[in-house]
Amino acid sequence: MRTSRFPLFTSKETPADAEIVSHQLMLRAGLIKRLGAGLYTWQPLGLRVMRRVERIVREEMDRINGLEVLMPAVQPAELWRESGRWSLYGPELLRLEDRHERDYCIGPTHEEVITDYLRQELRSYRQLPVTYYQIQTKFRDEIRPRFGVMRAREFVMKDAYSFHLDQDSLETTYRDMHAAYSAIFSRLGLRFRSVGADSGAIGGSVSEEFMVLADSGEDEIASCDQCDYAANTELARSRPAAPAATDPLPAERRSTPGIESVAEQCTLLGLTPGQVIKSVVVMADEAPAVLFVAGDDELNEVKAAHALGAETVRLAEPAEALAATGVPRGFIGPRDLPAGLTQLVDHRAATRVNFSSGANQADGHWINLNWDRDMPLPPTADLRTALAGEGCPRCADGRLEIHRGIEVGHIFQLGTKYSEAMDARVLDEAGDARPLIMGCYGIGVSRVVAAAIEQNHDARGIRWPAPLAPFDVAIVSIGAERSAAVAEAAERLYADLQAAGLDPLWDDRDARPGVKFADMELIGIPHRVVIGERGLNAGELEYRARDATASEALPLDDAANRLV
Ligand code: ATP
Ligand code: MG
Ligand code: MG
Ligand code: MG
After folding, report:
1. 431 Ramachandran zone, left/alpha/beta (phi>0; psi -120 to 50)
2. Angle at the Cα of 289 (from 286 to 294), degrees rounded to 5?
3. CA angle 448, 450, 452 (to 5 degrees)
4. How far is CA 411 from CA 34, 49, 64, 194, in A?
5. Does 418 have pLDDT greater than 80?
6. How far is the CA of 197 from the centre of ligand 4 (A)?
7. Residue 309: what pLDDT?
8. 3-state SS, one letter per residue, for 247-311
9. What are the residues whose beta carbon lies below 5 Å from ligand 3 (ion)?
10. Is 409 in the pocket of ligand 1 (CB under 6 A)?
11. CB atoms closer than 10 angstroms to residue 121
């Protein structure tokens, strides 16, 4: 490509509303353009990077025999009613009606669609195991879209789903998938960790997240300084705090008549013992805004809906009720106790926080059940380090360290959650119909691009890891308009590099060298060759790696070979 035909929409200004460096640089380098809240156009330069991520993801999925499909973004509500998630998913699910007044949603994930597809195609255990994947656009009506494509509403995900007759087979594929994910993130040149995770709204028992380590990450990871234990603090903190099923409830916590043990309470709430209650009630001054607060993700709503145990839950209601009280709408996204406190500090109106589980009485009013605890809001700093230094739950001597991470991938052992609900079965060897055992596996393809920038940048701009770079080499010609020798040398190098299979960007604009250098550094091309008259007279080109501080001379005749 030549910049005369591949316009660069770069900018020197740091956009005021971009809080983190990847968002700033993606806008400044002209990778993306904002359309609306959480909606972005991928410009040609940005799309090249995303395509490179996709290519690596595809190669690794194909290597473990994944079959690529492409499912519709718009999904019939019927399927979501079958799985039970139509009422459970909450306001992150964008719902719409067609001209025939039929309900649909724009898929935030595709468990229902793939289960419906394969319950029609899979008949026998002989067809198993099998893994399907797609790279496709998702929509989640995030309560607080931010950081550009990092937390967008419309984003690109690779989602894969595997189908099995038994748990052993699921575990084998899950391990293969874990290895494939490790290969993908290694090939992308990212520093990452896989950590134990909460299964959230997707469901299932075992799940792990892949976290790109970065201070700007929204997740917090606890890892042991002695063994390989690592977990999202959502999980790490919730586990020790979880009550045993046999624990009697202290008398002062028995706010519901007849409920005397944790087990009974769990039954009432539709939770399994050991699961942590994740709803939150905020008190503003003394005005009791006693509400279930819709969190920043679906999890809270799911738990609340479990608590309601009803199909009729209108998950918009809590948010509306909150608005009606006049309590300023804050960012409240705790997933468990007390880890969620880290995010409550953003809710400046809150004077105290009352954690509770919620349940619905027959008359539709919310009541609080047990585990209630009023506590003053600690300062942010204390919250951030609340785990650090604690003993490792796995080994005897280890201490936990806290890091921040960006969730770029998440793998789940789902079990039969969807196949039971949607009656997806195959015949086993004995001819009995058995529910399919499933796994599902996501990668935030568009988020990966932002995460890579968080780890690879400097004051001058992006420093792409080579496999992600939109172009392999920048050729900066100086004065080609006036010098036939420069134009000819640039043309030749450009052609030689292309012939060698590289993707060069020739900056052939009639602009000052400083402007061209700044742009090539901002957009992060890993290698740069400068072609000017002075160098040519000495039979040389000037080469500099993006992360080097000095240039070196390349012999004109051998330049292409040296770059390949
Ligand atoms: P998060 O905790 O960041 O909200 P999630 O746990 O809700 O993510 P999953 O359901 O596990 O997301 O989806 C798989 C992957 O999709 C995530 O690991 C992440 O990389 C990506 N992803 C999820 N939500 C977004 C979003 N709003 N914008 C960009 N990528 C996203
Ligand atoms: Mg989410
Ligand atoms: Mg998550
Ligand atoms: Mg996740």
Report:
1. left
2. 145
3. 65
4. 30, 24, 15, 10
5. yes
6. 8
7. 31
8. CECCHHHCCCCCCCEHHHHHHHHCCCCCCCCCCEEEEECCECCCCCCCCCCHHHHHHHHHHHCCC
9. 407
10. yes
11. 10
Pairwise CA distance, residues 452 & 446, whole Å: 10
Answer positive or negative: Cα dihedral of 486, 492, 496, 497: positive
For residue 40, the CA-to-ligand 1 centroid distance in Å is 16
The tokens for 171 are 């575990």
Is any atom of ligand 1 closer than 6 Å to the C-beta of 318? no
Cα separation, 148 vs 131, whole angstroms: 31
Which residues sit with Cβ closer than 5 angstroms to ligand 4, an ion?
A: 410
What's the token pair of residue 47? 């799309």
Q: Could you tell me the two tokens for 404?
A: 């921040």
Gap from CA of 407 to ligand 1 centroid (Å): 7
- Residue 31, judged by CB atoms within 10 A of its CB (0-12, 13-18, 19+), counts as buried
Q: Which of 60-64, 226-230, 267-271, 482-486 has the lowest mean pLDDT?
A: 267-271
Query: Does pLDDT of 307 surpass 80?
Result: no
Q: What is the pLDDT of residues 343-386, one digit of tens each?
A: 332 332 333 333 343 333 333 323 332 223 333 333 322 223 34
Question: pLDDT band at residue 449, thresholds of 50, 70 and 90?
Answer: very high
Mean pLDDT, rounded, for 489-494 = 96
Residue in 158, 140, 149, 152 with CA at minimum distance from that of residue 91: 140
pTM (two decimals): 0.77
Phi, psi for residue 456 in degrees, rounded to 5: -135, 85
The Cα-based distances of 22 to 343, 363, 395, 460, 548 in angstroms read: 22, 49, 37, 13, 21
Q: Evaluate whether 141 touches 93 at the Cβ level (below 8 Å).
A: yes
- Give 4-44 as a 3 state SS string: CCCCCCCCCCCCCCCCCHHHHHHHHCCCEEEEECCEEEECH
CA distance 322 to 349: 13
Specify burial of residue 311 (Cβ count, 10 A radius: 0-12, 13-18, 19+).
exposed
Token pair listed for 435: 């529910």
Beta-carbon-side half-sphere exposure of residue 531 (alpha carbons within 13 Å): 28
